[in-house]
Amino acid sequence: MEEAQRKVRAYIQGNQSDAAKFLQRVVQEGSVRGKESSAQAVIIEKCRELGMNMDIWELGGEELTNHPAFCSDRNNFVGNPNAVGVLPGTGGGRSLILNGHIDVVPVGDIDSWEYEPFSGKIENGRLYGRGSTDMKGGTVSLLLALEAIIKSGVTLKGDVIFQSVIEEESGGAGTLSTVLRGYKADGAIIPEPTNLKFFPKQQGSMWFRIKIRGKQAHGGTRYEGVSAIEKAELILKEIRELEIKRNSRITDPLFSEIPIPIPINVGKISSGDWPSSVPDIALIEGRMGVAPDESMENAKQEMEQAIEKVASLDPWLKENQPVVEWFGARWLPGDIEVEHDLVTVLTESFTEIKRARPVIEASPWATDGGILNKIGGVPVVVFGPGVTKMAHDANEYIELNDVYEVAEIIAVAIMKWCGTENDGT
Amino acid sequence: MEEAQRKVRAYIQGNQSDAAKFLQRVVQEGSVRGKESSAQAVIIEKCRELGMNMDIWELGGEELTNHPAFCSDRNNFVGNPNAVGVLPGTGGGRSLILNGHIDVVPVGDIDSWEYEPFSGKIENGRLYGRGSTDMKGGTVSLLLALEAIIKSGVTLKGDVIFQSVIEEESGGAGTLSTVLRGYKADGAIIPEPTNLKFFPKQQGSMWFRIKIRGKQAHGGTRYEGVSAIEKAELILKEIRELEIKRNSRITDPLFSEIPIPIPINVGKISSGDWPSSVPDIALIEGRMGVAPDESMENAKQEMEQAIEKVASLDPWLKENQPVVEWFGARWLPGDIEVEHDLVTVLTESFTEIKRARPVIEASPWATDGGILNKIGGVPVVVFGPGVTKMAHDANEYIELNDVYEVAEIIAVAIMKWCGTENDGT
């Protein structure tokens, strides 16, 4: 086992620049929602090179779309498949899912980017581009770990199921589809950008939309209308108060280092279509965090009650109730014990390589781990390279050394978890 | 003269239902910006029927676009002309411009409309539709007045210049083009919806856009970003305070009945493109009122200083100054004495027909009167049918009786102002 570890780690250390080039290719195929296919093709090509048994399919079917956890406003998955590569073990070991998502969020304001958002430019050990951190860097760590094990001739006892899924950023329909297709395992690792922390508990989250009515009028007689923007400001204030209230209840020590454990993020507002008119509709869209031990339903109710409260205090909103919708994305929370054997195996691997203890926290964001955990019954640890704050930001980048180091830690963890038949050939 | 008046007024009273049908046709040709041609065609057809000398042209040329008062972000006027019809007098009388705009503002939220926005539906003496009040009703009053004079065989001494212009809602390039083309006169009436009040002073206004920067981050770690929406809320608050400050200075008695004499209307906000991201850009667009005796430059400076002030108090905005732009529409204020002879003539006409004194106020909004007045040197009174608060609102409508009554008042005023050769034939 020690010999196998040595070979595998040496392989990773000797193939860093190829891994960086591979990550560059994956980032350059910008895979925003609905355009995942070309990046997915690069991943699939690599899996085929490694000799994995590939299962490639487009999402669909009533079992998926009627499932209570299905959540997507996308009506067309054609041409943008999920991809799963299986490395069958010889038997007698524990199976492991390695899950990464290929979809990336939009680039935002293009002017805020120093380099072209899908450049994949490498400078001072950092690789830049939308998706580099969230989470193509982590996916490359997974593939580099598997490549090292395979190329070193190490034979695993347990099955490894590598998954490259779509739709993580929009509600997890990709991972839900893998579960319904039958992919389950004794454990799972999701290398989202945790900055090498372990997240055995993951926050859930869901998207909301609040529609606020005003009354149109000419801007020059704006006192004859009711500004939907002014009414939206009342709602924004109430949302911040609700966030404070909900977070004051969080006592789990895994959240102790997180400034806002379960944030409510207002990500979008739009109102009005003419500078000289009083706007009559405002739409607010955002993302509500859900505690690992909280039900989605409870969180929804708290939001709806808060909006009802603010409406009850304003004469106009009392007569024109804002409407709360839950739409698009929804991620279930995930929750395994800190004492779970998967955490132990990862901690051992981490400690051997980093010569330090890992930080174990609750995740500040939701992942597909909630679906694997709550629907698939799979124990999940989220652990990967990349700094959380770069995800979704302009000038997103990843430190390449973190990608290589996580590959080593995960490679060793795979061997420990699945068991090995030999020390490599 | 009394006989001429009797005939002309009788004509208007006898042709009300044809006038209503004509207004219906004009409203049904919804003429939002860039699509003014078909409504304009209906107007032109009517002018030709009345035997006016028509001048129809598309806006353009350097004299227009380089003019300091030119203000438009529109780069294509092809196919959507201005139209002017001249009714030459026999000489020795005063000339009069009758100016109406054909463009209408967007319909806003379609669900707020009881009838289809361009239905032109008539019910209980009201005609419904976008543009009915602002200001196709007034334009029909003008044409009905002219038709009555012409069909009654009354010959005028002074020239009447009827103008149906584009771009009033977006900065007045249409009326500016008439001035530069040489159309000037001893007086002008603009039948915007004043609810039959006289507005010898008109508020100016201009559009602003404020760009506010935030810092993108994942919504789950929103504390690592800076929400452009939250920073925009500070700006919105400051704009309301500036509005209060500016209005507290207005002492002109013509404004005494107006709740907010020179409003600052925020008509639009947009920020963010993803519910789970912290938004990094917010755009606010609005319309700032300018007092009749105030310079546009002074108003601009006050806004810019207010935004600088709020930025100086916020550490993030201090480093990331919001940017104020003045774009798109700009309307100059207009200002003639209450004692001007045009006001007197209109007052006499009004009193004869309504058996009551008119209300004389300052306008709560800007009109093309500012350009006619400040650039063309033409004394302007704004006076027309329709209720201000219906302009730009959903379910916009006009009381048809007001259209007919204004036609009578304006017809009599035309005869008094221009002088008549005969009593009709």
From TrEMBL, chains A, B:
Belongs to the peptidase M20A family. Keywords: Cobalt, Hydrolase, Metal-binding, Zinc. Pfam families: M20_dimer, Peptidase_M20. It comes from Mesobacillus persicus. NCBIfam families: DapE-ArgE, PRK06837.1, PRK06915.1. Its cofactor is Zn(2+); Co(2+). This is 4-acetamidobutyryl-CoA deacetylase. InterPro entries: ArgE/DapE (IPR010182), Bact_exopeptidase_dim_dom (IPR036264), Peptidase_M20 (IPR002933), Peptidase_M20_dimer (IPR011650), Peptidase_M20A (IPR050072). GO terms for molecular function: hydrolase activity; metal ion binding. Residues 202-311 form the Peptidase M20 dimerisation domain.
